[in-house]
Amino acid sequence: RRAAGNPDTGRFAATLVSPEFEVEGGKDATIVYVTTYQRAFEQSAEVLVSFDGAEPVRIRAYGADADVNATERITLPTPKGASTAQVSFDYSGATGGFWTIDQVSVTSAG
Known about the structure:
The protein is an all-beta fold. The chain has no helices and 9 strands. A hairpin with a 4-residue loop joins strand 1 (2-6) and strand 2. The radius of gyration is 15 Å and the shape is elongated. The two termini are 29 Å apart.
């Protein structure tokens, strides 16, 4: 978990990072989580995944034009040969909005 803020501007950024977990290369995995995203001013949030320590790629984005209260289910197309994955939840924005994440689980098709 990483967080940073600037009290003078009201800007805030935070990242929640999962532990690495095992995947079976070439077989899809699925991440499920419960989320509430309440927009306020300029803000954004995104879910990223990294396989075997490679550069993370975005698998879901939330912008300043969306309010969400849902259970999200996202398929992770696991690259052939991959053995581990790590999920990050990145938020940045102004005070007043929020993003909650709960009940995170990952399942593999393997």
